Amino acid sequence: MKSEASDSQVDSSAFDRSDFALAIALAGIAGIVILPGLGAQSLANWDEAIYGVVTRELLADLSLTLHYGGRPWFEKPPFAFWLMAASSSLFGLTEFALRLPSAFFGITAVVLQYLAGRNLGGRPAGLLAALLLLGTPQFVAYSRLAMTDVPLAGLGMLSVVLLLYAKGRSSLIMAAGAAFGLAILTKSAATFLFLPGLLAIAIAQDGLRFLRSRETWLAAIVTIAIALPWHAWLGLTYGDSFVDQYLGFHILARFASPLEGHEGSSLYYLDTYFQKGGFLAPFHAAGLGLAVSLAILRRDRLLAAVSILALAAFAIVNVQGTKIGGYLTPVYPAAALAAALGLTRFIQNTRAVVALIAVTTLLALPGIMFGRGRFVETADLVHFSPEVRSLTTAPVFAEGRISQLYSFGLSEPALRFYLADQVQSIGENELERLFAQGKPFLCLTFNSEAANFASKHPYLQLEIIASTKSLALIGHR
User: Fold this and answer.
1) Is the pLDDT confidence value at 418 over 90?
2) What is the pLDDT of residue 5?
3) Whether 227 and 345 share a structural domain
Protein backbone atom coordinates (compact mmCIF):
# COMPACT_ATOMS: atom_id res chain seq x y z
CA MET A 1 0.00 0.00 0.00
CA LYS A 2 1.02 3.61 -0.59
CA SER A 3 1.96 5.71 2.38
CA GLU A 4 0.08 8.87 3.29
CA ALA A 5 3.02 10.92 2.08
CA SER A 6 2.70 9.33 -1.31
CA ASP A 7 -1.04 9.82 -1.46
CA SER A 8 -0.75 13.47 -0.49
CA GLN A 9 1.17 14.20 -3.65
CA VAL A 10 -1.51 12.88 -5.97
CA ASP A 11 -4.40 15.01 -7.17
CA SER A 12 -7.13 12.41 -7.32
CA SER A 13 -9.79 14.76 -8.70
CA ALA A 14 -11.50 13.72 -11.91
CA PHE A 15 -10.21 14.80 -15.30
CA ASP A 16 -12.02 18.07 -16.02
CA ARG A 17 -12.08 21.07 -18.38
CA SER A 18 -8.87 22.44 -16.95
CA ASP A 19 -7.08 19.23 -17.85
CA PHE A 20 -8.61 19.28 -21.31
CA ALA A 21 -7.43 22.88 -21.78
CA LEU A 22 -3.93 22.00 -20.58
CA ALA A 23 -3.77 19.01 -22.93
CA ILE A 24 -4.82 21.18 -25.88
CA ALA A 25 -2.30 23.85 -24.88
CA LEU A 26 0.49 21.27 -24.68
CA ALA A 27 -0.49 19.92 -28.11
CA GLY A 28 -0.31 23.46 -29.47
CA ILE A 29 3.10 24.10 -27.91
CA ALA A 30 4.44 20.78 -29.18
CA GLY A 31 3.06 21.62 -32.64
CA ILE A 32 4.87 24.98 -32.58
CA VAL A 33 8.09 23.16 -31.66
CA ILE A 34 7.84 20.27 -34.12
CA LEU A 35 5.92 21.40 -37.22
CA PRO A 36 7.56 24.63 -38.55
CA GLY A 37 10.03 23.86 -41.32
CA LEU A 38 9.14 20.18 -41.28
CA GLY A 39 9.76 19.83 -45.01
CA ALA A 40 12.62 22.32 -45.33
CA GLN A 41 15.45 19.83 -45.00
CA SER A 42 16.19 17.11 -47.53
CA LEU A 43 15.59 13.50 -46.59
CA ALA A 44 18.52 12.00 -44.72
CA ASN A 45 20.59 9.85 -47.03
CA TRP A 46 19.87 6.53 -45.50
CA ASP A 47 16.73 5.52 -43.60
CA GLU A 48 14.63 8.58 -44.49
CA ALA A 49 15.45 8.36 -48.19
CA ILE A 50 14.89 4.59 -48.15
CA TYR A 51 11.50 5.07 -46.50
CA GLY A 52 10.66 7.75 -49.07
CA VAL A 53 11.39 5.31 -51.90
CA VAL A 54 9.37 2.55 -50.19
CA THR A 55 6.44 4.97 -49.83
CA ARG A 56 6.69 6.04 -53.48
CA GLU A 57 6.54 2.42 -54.61
CA LEU A 58 3.65 1.70 -52.23
CA LEU A 59 1.68 4.57 -53.77
CA ALA A 60 2.45 3.23 -57.24
CA ASP A 61 1.37 -0.31 -56.35
CA LEU A 62 -0.89 -0.63 -53.31
CA SER A 63 0.06 -3.96 -51.82
CA LEU A 64 0.65 -5.66 -48.50
CA THR A 65 4.23 -6.19 -49.64
CA LEU A 66 6.56 -3.22 -49.31
CA HIS A 67 9.05 -2.73 -52.13
CA TYR A 68 12.36 -0.96 -52.63
CA GLY A 69 13.77 -0.70 -56.12
CA GLY A 70 11.00 -2.98 -57.38
CA ARG A 71 11.99 -5.80 -55.03
CA PRO A 72 10.19 -7.00 -51.88
CA TRP A 73 11.55 -5.16 -48.84
CA PHE A 74 11.31 -6.95 -45.50
CA GLU A 75 13.15 -4.63 -43.14
CA LYS A 76 10.13 -3.08 -41.38
CA PRO A 77 6.41 -3.78 -40.91
CA PRO A 78 4.01 -1.61 -42.94
CA PHE A 79 1.99 0.64 -40.58
CA ALA A 80 4.30 3.68 -40.64
CA PHE A 81 4.51 3.39 -44.43
CA TRP A 82 0.73 3.22 -44.75
CA LEU A 83 0.59 6.48 -42.78
CA MET A 84 3.31 8.08 -44.93
CA ALA A 85 1.51 6.96 -48.07
CA ALA A 86 -1.79 8.38 -46.79
CA SER A 87 -0.12 11.68 -45.93
CA SER A 88 1.62 11.78 -49.31
CA SER A 89 -1.63 11.10 -51.16
CA LEU A 90 -3.01 14.26 -49.54
CA PHE A 91 0.00 16.58 -49.69
CA GLY A 92 2.11 15.08 -52.45
CA LEU A 93 5.25 12.97 -52.05
CA THR A 94 7.26 15.64 -50.25
CA GLU A 95 9.54 15.76 -47.25
CA PHE A 96 6.73 17.41 -45.29
CA ALA A 97 4.22 14.67 -46.08
CA LEU A 98 6.66 11.87 -45.28
CA ARG A 99 7.55 13.41 -41.92
CA LEU A 100 4.03 14.37 -40.90
CA PRO A 101 3.15 11.01 -39.25
CA SER A 102 6.25 11.22 -37.02
CA ALA A 103 5.38 14.81 -36.16
CA PHE A 104 1.82 13.79 -35.29
CA PHE A 105 3.04 11.06 -32.95
CA GLY A 106 5.62 13.41 -31.44
CA ILE A 107 2.88 15.91 -30.58
CA THR A 108 0.63 13.11 -29.36
CA ALA A 109 3.38 11.70 -27.13
CA VAL A 110 3.73 15.05 -25.32
CA VAL A 111 -0.01 15.08 -24.61
CA LEU A 112 0.12 11.45 -23.48
CA GLN A 113 2.88 12.39 -21.04
CA TYR A 114 0.55 14.88 -19.43
CA LEU A 115 -2.32 12.38 -19.28
CA ALA A 116 -0.13 9.68 -17.72
CA GLY A 117 1.47 12.06 -15.22
CA ARG A 118 -1.91 13.59 -14.38
CA ASN A 119 -3.34 10.15 -13.65
CA LEU A 120 -0.44 9.10 -11.44
CA GLY A 121 0.68 12.31 -9.78
CA GLY A 122 -1.69 15.17 -10.51
CA ARG A 123 -1.34 18.18 -12.81
CA PRO A 124 2.19 19.20 -11.71
CA ALA A 125 3.51 15.72 -12.49
CA GLY A 126 1.72 15.77 -15.85
CA LEU A 127 3.16 19.14 -16.83
CA LEU A 128 6.65 18.18 -15.71
CA ALA A 129 6.51 14.87 -17.62
CA ALA A 130 5.48 16.69 -20.81
CA LEU A 131 8.27 19.27 -20.41
CA LEU A 132 10.90 16.62 -19.66
CA LEU A 133 10.03 14.96 -22.97
CA LEU A 134 9.56 18.06 -25.13
CA GLY A 135 12.93 19.44 -24.02
CA THR A 136 14.81 16.29 -25.05
CA PRO A 137 16.78 17.13 -28.25
CA GLN A 138 16.75 13.63 -29.72
CA PHE A 139 13.01 13.30 -29.28
CA VAL A 140 12.39 16.66 -30.98
CA ALA A 141 14.79 15.80 -33.81
CA TYR A 142 13.30 12.37 -34.50
CA SER A 143 9.77 13.80 -34.37
CA ARG A 144 10.88 15.80 -37.42
CA LEU A 145 12.20 12.81 -39.41
CA ALA A 146 10.41 10.24 -41.54
CA MET A 147 11.41 7.41 -39.21
CA THR A 148 9.59 4.75 -37.19
CA ASP A 149 11.03 5.52 -33.72
CA VAL A 150 8.63 8.28 -32.64
CA PRO A 151 5.50 6.50 -33.97
CA LEU A 152 6.61 3.49 -31.92
CA ALA A 153 7.06 5.71 -28.84
CA GLY A 154 3.65 7.32 -29.35
CA LEU A 155 1.80 4.04 -29.77
CA GLY A 156 3.65 2.41 -26.89
CA MET A 157 2.76 5.28 -24.54
CA LEU A 158 -0.82 5.26 -25.84
CA SER A 159 -1.13 1.66 -24.66
CA VAL A 160 0.26 2.75 -21.27
CA VAL A 161 -2.18 5.65 -20.91
CA LEU A 162 -5.18 3.58 -21.97
CA LEU A 163 -4.24 0.95 -19.40
CA LEU A 164 -3.83 3.58 -16.66
CA TYR A 165 -7.26 5.05 -17.35
CA ALA A 166 -9.01 1.73 -17.93
CA LYS A 167 -10.00 1.13 -14.29
CA GLY A 168 -11.29 -2.30 -15.26
CA ARG A 169 -13.21 -1.09 -18.32
CA SER A 170 -12.97 -3.72 -21.04
CA SER A 171 -13.16 -1.22 -23.89
CA LEU A 172 -10.07 0.70 -22.76
CA ILE A 173 -8.10 -2.44 -21.96
CA MET A 174 -8.87 -3.77 -25.45
CA ALA A 175 -7.94 -0.38 -26.92
CA ALA A 176 -4.59 -0.68 -25.13
CA GLY A 177 -4.16 -4.05 -26.83
CA ALA A 178 -5.01 -2.48 -30.19
CA ALA A 179 -2.41 0.27 -29.66
CA PHE A 180 0.18 -2.38 -28.81
CA GLY A 181 -0.73 -4.33 -31.95
CA LEU A 182 -0.27 -1.22 -34.10
CA ALA A 183 3.07 -0.61 -32.40
CA ILE A 184 4.18 -4.11 -33.45
CA LEU A 185 3.07 -3.28 -37.01
CA THR A 186 5.24 -0.16 -36.76
CA LYS A 187 8.56 -1.52 -35.51
CA SER A 188 8.08 -5.24 -34.86
CA ALA A 189 10.03 -6.65 -31.91
CA ALA A 190 11.14 -3.23 -30.64
CA THR A 191 7.59 -2.84 -29.29
CA PHE A 192 8.31 -5.39 -26.57
CA LEU A 193 10.48 -2.92 -24.71
CA PHE A 194 7.14 -1.58 -23.38
CA LEU A 195 5.83 -4.99 -22.33
CA PRO A 196 7.50 -5.35 -18.87
CA GLY A 197 6.21 -1.90 -17.86
CA LEU A 198 2.70 -2.59 -19.14
CA LEU A 199 2.54 -5.84 -17.20
CA ALA A 200 3.92 -4.13 -14.09
CA ILE A 201 1.30 -1.37 -14.32
CA ALA A 202 -1.52 -3.86 -14.82
CA ILE A 203 -0.40 -5.94 -11.82
CA ALA A 204 0.09 -2.82 -9.69
CA GLN A 205 -3.49 -1.76 -10.41
CA ASP A 206 -5.33 -5.07 -10.24
CA GLY A 207 -2.94 -7.64 -8.79
CA LEU A 208 -2.00 -10.95 -10.37
CA ARG A 209 -5.64 -11.65 -11.18
CA PHE A 210 -5.23 -9.25 -14.11
CA LEU A 211 -3.14 -11.87 -15.89
CA ARG A 212 -6.01 -14.35 -15.94
CA SER A 213 -8.88 -11.93 -16.36
CA ARG A 214 -11.23 -12.02 -19.35
CA GLU A 215 -10.25 -8.44 -20.30
CA THR A 216 -6.57 -9.35 -20.49
CA TRP A 217 -7.22 -12.24 -22.82
CA LEU A 218 -9.48 -10.09 -24.99
CA ALA A 219 -6.73 -7.43 -25.19
CA ALA A 220 -4.21 -10.11 -26.17
CA ILE A 221 -6.57 -11.40 -28.87
CA VAL A 222 -6.98 -7.85 -30.24
CA THR A 223 -3.19 -7.39 -30.30
CA ILE A 224 -2.71 -10.66 -32.18
CA ALA A 225 -5.62 -9.93 -34.56
CA ILE A 226 -3.93 -6.67 -35.58
CA ALA A 227 -0.29 -7.73 -35.66
CA LEU A 228 -0.46 -11.33 -36.92
CA PRO A 229 -2.27 -11.22 -40.32
CA TRP A 230 0.38 -9.15 -42.14
CA HIS A 231 3.21 -11.27 -40.73
CA ALA A 232 1.39 -14.50 -41.55
CA TRP A 233 0.56 -13.40 -45.10
CA LEU A 234 4.16 -12.36 -45.82
CA GLY A 235 5.44 -15.59 -44.29
CA LEU A 236 3.09 -17.73 -46.38
CA THR A 237 3.74 -15.72 -49.55
CA TYR A 238 7.54 -15.47 -49.40
CA GLY A 239 8.47 -18.32 -47.05
CA ASP A 240 12.10 -18.54 -45.99
CA SER A 241 13.00 -15.33 -47.84
CA PHE A 242 10.75 -13.30 -45.53
CA VAL A 243 11.57 -15.27 -42.37
CA ASP A 244 15.34 -15.14 -42.93
CA GLN A 245 15.46 -11.42 -43.66
CA TYR A 246 12.73 -10.05 -41.39
CA LEU A 247 13.13 -12.34 -38.40
CA GLY A 248 16.59 -13.82 -38.85
CA PHE A 249 18.55 -10.73 -39.90
CA HIS A 250 16.62 -7.60 -38.92
CA ILE A 251 15.44 -8.89 -35.52
CA LEU A 252 17.52 -11.78 -34.18
CA ALA A 253 20.89 -10.98 -35.74
CA ARG A 254 20.53 -7.25 -35.03
CA PHE A 255 19.72 -8.02 -31.40
CA ALA A 256 22.47 -10.60 -30.93
CA SER A 257 25.46 -8.90 -32.54
CA PRO A 258 26.65 -5.59 -33.99
CA LEU A 259 25.67 -5.24 -37.66
CA GLU A 260 26.92 -2.89 -40.36
CA GLY A 261 29.57 -1.41 -38.07
CA HIS A 262 27.12 -0.28 -35.38
CA GLU A 263 28.97 -1.38 -32.29
CA GLY A 264 29.77 0.14 -28.93
CA SER A 265 30.66 -0.56 -25.31
CA SER A 266 28.26 -1.57 -22.56
CA LEU A 267 28.03 2.14 -21.66
CA TYR A 268 27.17 3.23 -25.21
CA TYR A 269 23.51 4.03 -24.54
CA LEU A 270 24.19 5.62 -21.17
CA ASP A 271 26.72 7.95 -22.81
CA THR A 272 24.32 8.59 -25.68
CA TYR A 273 21.49 9.42 -23.28
CA PHE A 274 23.49 12.19 -21.65
CA GLN A 275 24.77 13.46 -25.00
CA LYS A 276 21.44 13.44 -26.85
CA GLY A 277 19.17 14.11 -23.89
CA GLY A 278 20.40 17.68 -23.49
CA PHE A 279 20.34 19.61 -20.22
CA LEU A 280 17.33 17.59 -19.04
CA ALA A 281 19.14 14.23 -19.10
CA PRO A 282 20.42 14.70 -15.50
CA PHE A 283 16.82 15.49 -14.46
CA HIS A 284 15.70 12.21 -16.06
CA ALA A 285 18.40 10.30 -14.17
CA ALA A 286 17.84 12.04 -10.81
CA GLY A 287 14.06 11.79 -11.04
CA LEU A 288 14.18 8.12 -12.01
CA GLY A 289 16.52 7.42 -9.09
CA LEU A 290 14.08 9.16 -6.74
CA ALA A 291 11.15 7.24 -8.23
CA VAL A 292 12.87 3.90 -7.56
CA SER A 293 13.86 4.92 -4.03
CA LEU A 294 10.41 6.25 -3.11
CA ALA A 295 8.68 3.22 -4.62
CA ILE A 296 10.74 0.99 -2.33
CA LEU A 297 10.48 3.16 0.79
CA ARG A 298 6.76 3.86 0.43
CA ARG A 299 5.85 0.50 -1.11
CA ASP A 300 4.20 2.38 -3.94
CA ARG A 301 3.34 -0.24 -6.54
CA LEU A 302 2.33 2.13 -9.33
CA LEU A 303 5.47 4.21 -8.90
CA ALA A 304 7.49 0.99 -8.98
CA ALA A 305 5.63 -0.09 -12.14
CA VAL A 306 6.40 3.17 -13.95
CA SER A 307 10.03 2.83 -12.86
CA ILE A 308 10.04 -0.67 -14.36
CA LEU A 309 8.57 0.78 -17.58
CA ALA A 310 11.58 3.09 -17.91
CA LEU A 311 14.32 0.79 -16.61
CA ALA A 312 13.19 -2.28 -18.55
CA ALA A 313 12.92 -0.30 -21.79
CA PHE A 314 16.45 1.03 -21.33
CA ALA A 315 17.78 -2.41 -20.36
CA ILE A 316 16.28 -4.09 -23.43
CA VAL A 317 17.73 -1.43 -25.73
CA ASN A 318 21.08 -1.63 -23.94
CA VAL A 319 21.57 -5.39 -24.34
CA GLN A 320 21.15 -5.25 -28.11
CA GLY A 321 24.31 -6.03 -30.02
CA THR A 322 23.67 -3.42 -32.71
CA LYS A 323 24.21 0.03 -31.19
CA ILE A 324 22.33 2.88 -32.89
CA GLY A 325 21.56 6.10 -31.03
CA GLY A 326 18.07 6.36 -32.49
CA TYR A 327 17.03 3.17 -30.66
CA LEU A 328 16.90 5.27 -27.47
CA THR A 329 14.02 7.41 -28.77
CA PRO A 330 11.16 5.25 -27.39
CA VAL A 331 12.88 5.15 -23.98
CA TYR A 332 12.65 8.91 -23.39
CA PRO A 333 8.87 9.11 -22.71
CA ALA A 334 8.98 6.37 -20.06
CA ALA A 335 12.06 7.88 -18.40
CA ALA A 336 10.54 11.38 -18.44
CA LEU A 337 7.32 10.08 -16.89
CA ALA A 338 9.10 8.19 -14.11
CA ALA A 339 11.39 11.18 -13.46
CA ALA A 340 8.45 13.59 -13.21
CA LEU A 341 6.70 11.33 -10.70
CA GLY A 342 9.86 10.83 -8.66
CA LEU A 343 10.59 14.56 -8.48
CA THR A 344 7.05 15.70 -7.68
CA ARG A 345 6.55 12.93 -5.09
CA PHE A 346 9.82 13.89 -3.39
CA ILE A 347 9.22 17.65 -3.27
CA GLN A 348 6.63 18.46 -0.64
CA ASN A 349 6.33 22.23 -1.15
CA THR A 350 3.94 23.52 -3.83
CA ARG A 351 6.08 26.57 -4.53
CA ALA A 352 9.14 24.37 -4.95
CA VAL A 353 7.26 22.26 -7.51
CA VAL A 354 6.26 25.41 -9.41
CA ALA A 355 9.90 26.55 -9.34
CA LEU A 356 10.99 23.13 -10.61
CA ILE A 357 8.56 23.37 -13.53
CA ALA A 358 9.84 26.88 -14.32
CA VAL A 359 13.49 25.74 -14.26
CA THR A 360 12.63 22.72 -16.41
CA THR A 361 10.94 25.01 -18.93
CA LEU A 362 14.06 27.18 -19.17
CA LEU A 363 16.34 24.15 -19.57
CA ALA A 364 14.00 22.67 -22.19
CA LEU A 365 14.50 25.65 -24.51
CA PRO A 366 18.11 24.90 -25.56
CA GLY A 367 17.13 21.25 -26.04
CA ILE A 368 14.32 22.30 -28.34
CA MET A 369 16.64 24.59 -30.31
CA PHE A 370 19.26 21.85 -30.64
CA GLY A 371 16.67 19.27 -31.66
CA ARG A 372 15.30 21.61 -34.33
CA GLY A 373 18.72 22.73 -35.48
CA ARG A 374 22.00 20.96 -36.00
CA PHE A 375 21.14 17.75 -34.16
CA VAL A 376 20.47 15.70 -37.29
CA GLU A 377 23.55 16.94 -39.11
CA THR A 378 25.84 16.24 -36.15
CA ALA A 379 24.35 12.76 -35.98
CA ASP A 380 25.57 12.30 -39.58
CA LEU A 381 22.10 11.44 -40.86
CA VAL A 382 21.87 13.96 -43.69
CA HIS A 383 25.32 13.50 -45.31
CA PHE A 384 25.23 14.75 -48.92
CA SER A 385 21.45 14.56 -49.51
CA PRO A 386 20.94 18.38 -49.57
CA GLU A 387 23.21 18.52 -52.59
CA VAL A 388 21.40 15.63 -54.24
CA ARG A 389 18.11 17.47 -53.81
CA SER A 390 19.61 20.66 -55.27
CA LEU A 391 20.43 18.75 -58.47
CA THR A 392 16.70 18.37 -59.16
CA THR A 393 16.81 21.96 -60.49
CA ALA A 394 19.45 21.08 -63.11
CA PRO A 395 18.18 21.22 -66.73
CA VAL A 396 18.71 17.48 -67.21
CA PHE A 397 16.05 16.87 -64.55
CA ALA A 398 13.69 19.54 -65.85
CA GLU A 399 11.02 16.94 -66.64
CA GLY A 400 11.45 15.16 -63.31
CA ARG A 401 13.22 12.01 -62.25
CA ILE A 402 14.96 10.01 -64.96
CA SER A 403 14.62 6.28 -65.55
CA GLN A 404 18.26 5.24 -65.00
CA LEU A 405 21.17 6.78 -63.10
CA TYR A 406 24.57 5.29 -62.32
CA SER A 407 26.38 5.94 -59.05
CA PHE A 408 30.16 5.91 -58.68
CA GLY A 409 31.27 5.98 -55.03
CA LEU A 410 27.92 7.21 -53.65
CA SER A 411 25.24 5.39 -51.67
CA GLU A 412 21.97 5.25 -53.52
CA PRO A 413 18.89 6.03 -51.34
CA ALA A 414 18.78 9.83 -51.81
CA LEU A 415 19.63 9.41 -55.51
CA ARG A 416 16.76 6.97 -55.95
CA PHE A 417 14.29 9.22 -54.16
CA TYR A 418 15.20 12.54 -55.78
CA LEU A 419 16.74 11.77 -59.17
CA ALA A 420 15.99 8.39 -60.74
CA ASP A 421 13.69 5.37 -60.78
CA GLN A 422 16.64 2.99 -60.92
CA VAL A 423 20.13 3.57 -59.52
CA GLN A 424 23.01 1.21 -60.23
CA SER A 425 26.28 1.40 -58.31
CA ILE A 426 29.30 0.85 -60.55
CA GLY A 427 33.09 0.72 -60.26
CA GLU A 428 35.79 2.43 -62.30
CA ASN A 429 35.95 -0.31 -64.95
CA GLU A 430 32.20 -0.22 -65.54
CA LEU A 431 32.28 3.59 -65.77
CA GLU A 432 35.09 3.41 -68.30
CA ARG A 433 33.07 0.96 -70.42
CA LEU A 434 30.03 3.26 -70.36
CA PHE A 435 32.12 6.12 -71.72
CA ALA A 436 33.73 3.88 -74.32
CA GLN A 437 30.33 2.74 -75.64
CA GLY A 438 29.39 6.32 -76.48
CA LYS A 439 25.73 5.79 -75.57
CA PRO A 440 23.77 8.34 -73.49
CA PHE A 441 24.07 7.80 -69.74
CA LEU A 442 24.31 9.78 -66.51
CA CYS A 443 26.47 9.01 -63.50
CA LEU A 444 26.68 10.87 -60.19
CA THR A 445 29.88 10.90 -58.22
CA PHE A 446 31.96 13.14 -55.99
CA ASN A 447 33.90 15.98 -57.63
CA SER A 448 37.16 14.44 -56.42
CA GLU A 449 36.27 11.08 -57.99
CA ALA A 450 35.35 12.77 -61.28
CA ALA A 451 38.69 14.64 -61.30
CA ASN A 452 40.65 11.46 -60.55
CA PHE A 453 38.79 9.55 -63.25
CA ALA A 454 39.39 12.32 -65.80
CA SER A 455 43.12 12.40 -65.04
CA LYS A 456 43.41 8.63 -65.48
CA HIS A 457 41.33 8.57 -68.69
CA PRO A 458 41.92 11.88 -70.54
CA TYR A 459 40.95 10.35 -73.88
CA LEU A 460 37.36 9.78 -72.74
CA GLN A 461 36.44 13.50 -72.84
CA LEU A 462 34.54 13.49 -69.56
CA GLU A 463 31.76 16.08 -69.45
CA ILE A 464 30.44 17.54 -66.20
CA ILE A 465 26.74 18.02 -66.92
CA ALA A 466 25.82 19.49 -63.51
CA SER A 467 27.62 19.95 -60.23
CA THR A 468 27.31 21.05 -56.62
CA LYS A 469 29.90 21.81 -53.97
CA SER A 470 30.76 18.12 -53.55
CA LEU A 471 29.04 16.25 -56.38
CA ALA A 472 29.44 15.99 -60.14
CA LEU A 473 26.95 14.59 -62.65
CA ILE A 474 28.95 13.18 -65.55
CA GLY A 475 28.16 11.18 -68.68
CA HIS A 476 26.91 11.45 -72.26
CA ARG A 477 23.59 13.01 -73.30
Assistant:
1) yes
2) 38
3) yes
